[in-house]
Amino acid sequence: MKKSKKYIAFIAPAFILYTVFMIIPILFAMYYSFFNWNGIGDMVFIGLNNFKRLLTEPRMSRIFFNALSNNFVYLLCVMVLITPIQLFFAYVLNIKIRAHKYLQLMLFLPYVVSTSIVGFFATLMFDPNIGVLNSILSSLGLEESAWLGNPDLSFKIFVGVVIWQCIGSGMMIFYANMKEIPDSLIEASIIDGAGELRKFFNVVLPQLTSSLSTNITLSVIFALTMFDIPFMLGGPQGGVNNTIDFVNMVFYRYAFGGAYFGETSLGFGSSISVTMFLIILTMSMLVKALLKKVKIDY
Amino acid sequence: MVFRKKEFKIAESASVRLVKNTISVILVVYTFITLFLFGNTILSSFKEKQELINNTIGIPKRFTLENYRTLLVEKDFLRYFFNSFFLVFLSLFLLLLVASMAAYGLSSFKFRGNSVLQTYFLIGLMFPIQLGILPLFIMLTRLHLNNTIPGLALLYAANMSFPLLVFSKFFRGIPTSLSESARIDGAGEFRVFLSIIIPMSKPVLFTMGLINFVTIWNDFYMPLVFLTKNSVRTLTLAVYTFMANFLANWHLVFAAVVVALLPVIIVFFRFSDQIVSGLTGGAVKE
């Protein structure tokens, strides 16, 4: 390391850009959340009233808590469904099953597909009139379905679409981690006569703490900021009966969509994003603490 | 005892092999969904309007480039394509330049407050991008940068915590002997940075560039908020607005999707390994 004043010239551009367009807006969001303000007129300080309205006013809190519970149901799906599938796919790639090179590319491919194209693919598959699935059903003589228009199905379809698109990145992070496990460790367990399952839980999984913590942390944030895919599948209102509505979409509607009694409310919109941030912060700290505990256990 | 790989293959029981092959078959069938979606979209983009109404699946009876012509010439997709490219390259240029410079400043100079600054630059990882979006919207509007591509590029470049972290880690691993001898030869700090550090960091700059290319090219949320005017629309946004009225545009949507997909698909098949190492960002290697 050198001692010199030159570092200022290196750091200053980043510092200014980052402070102005990253940190200050966050502080302002927190500030706005205490005001009643539509962006043009006077700002009126109203303390915690925005938060109170969000959490207690019957009409508003129903929308908010419905969306929040969708975020958490999805997070649950991540933990019990998506992460295990990613782990499983990574593992079968790692033991080099037949066609693993082809599978690796094809499973990872949807990662580079933009969500608006995912929306197009969903229309292609699920649209009641022109979708592939209904034409298959009708050609088989079976009853057609409304798919995303059916409130019992929409969340399941949403999870399916997310699995199709988003599984690749986490899978590759696991896979990259697995490749670093020395062969000798796995071979030793084969000599012991351990089955694939036992081998996986006793030998492979304990070596994956770094990728597990990366993936879990990323998916907690992804789950709680969910926006693109439900927006594509169900529109800004989050589908029939708001079955695929998420907090971030509620925020978008109130901040930019004029859903606040027909007008845009920046103060109220900010209180939604600040609330969401506090929830994300709590959850990530929880996950961090949990992961630390697990690490010590090994 | 040292066993060779081959001997294990023989030792693998028939039942294990059966399970493995079954999993292969299931996964291959599963990936046919992806193949079908991509293949059918490409094939349908060459179909005539009349044919598409009755026949969404399968090989076109007559190939036509009419859809692409209409799309690029009459529907402004050439402009959207240019907008996307301009946005991606401007953002990447700013992001990589500013983040690598700061990372160099933080990792090779000793000064008071260095570690505080490092933490400060990492705070960005904690915040969801949506938190600051309302104030950003107001700021950009007041700076007359809303609905401009450079304005949005500034926001992407400001989201620099992750690349900065990766670059700092990488720069700390570069042996100082090279830059020291350059300094003795009279090279200034910027000379050292440009002609020694940057060339040595090409792989890490490239992978960070790649994943940000894919992310920014595909991003939907930020353009939805910040690029609402037709003249600055990006491709992903254009595909979305097209889809909103898809029955009228049904014959053009397929070609639009192909145009938007093409660059990322090429990048994917050429550089999938580098994308993965960009994703993990060295986090796994610890």
Structure description:
The complex is a heterodimer of chains A (298) and B (286). Chain A contains 13 helices and two strands; from the N terminus they run αββαααααααααααα. With 298 residues, chain A is mainly alpha-helical. In chain A, strand 1 and strand 2 form a beta hairpin. The longest helix of chain A is centred in the first third of the chain and has 37 residues, at 58-94. The radius of gyration of chain A is 24 Å and the shape is globular. The two termini of chain A are 37 Å apart. By secondary structure, chain B is mainly alpha-helical. Chain B has helices at 5-11, 14-44, 49-54, 66-74, 77-108, 114-122, 133-142, 149-158, 161-173, 177-184, 189-200, 202-218, 221-226, 235-244, 246-280. Chains A and B meet through helix 1, helix 4, helix 5, helix 7 and helix 8 of A and helix 2, helix 5, helix 7, helix 8 and helix 11 of B.
